[in-house]
Fold this sequence. Notes:
Elements: H1 2-20, H2 24-40, H3 43-57, E1 63-64, E2 69-70, H4 77-80, H5 84-93, H6 107-120
Antiparallel strand pairs: 1-2
Helix pairs in contact: 1-5, 2-3, 3-6, 5-6
Amino acid sequence: MLRLRLGAVLIVLALAIAACGGGDSSSSSSSSSTQSSSSAGGTENASAEGKTVFTANCKGCHTLKDAGATGSVGPNLDDVKPDQATVKRQVENGGGPMPAFKGKLSDAQITAVSTYVSTVAGQS
């Protein structure tokens, strides 16, 4: 039952992220600033970096209140409330129609966005 539920969540996340795709110019322009902020460390920097990555790459497809995102192509992340590992896996590997972002986003950006989403999803 747990595997079935996890599989369903992964499929929903995959579909949502696949539709996002993001723009190469947005993600590459944010990569240098987000990489430098992540080297500074700290939870606040990671949260700001994650929000920046989410806004540039995911906002058009997902709903996430904290980011002001109202996309309806992918799942509503406030409803799904995925954990960090699930988000990271989906962002890295994609699935279904969702593209993989590994190689498009840095490891630091993927970690930042997965931490950000898992931290703020479902928060009022």
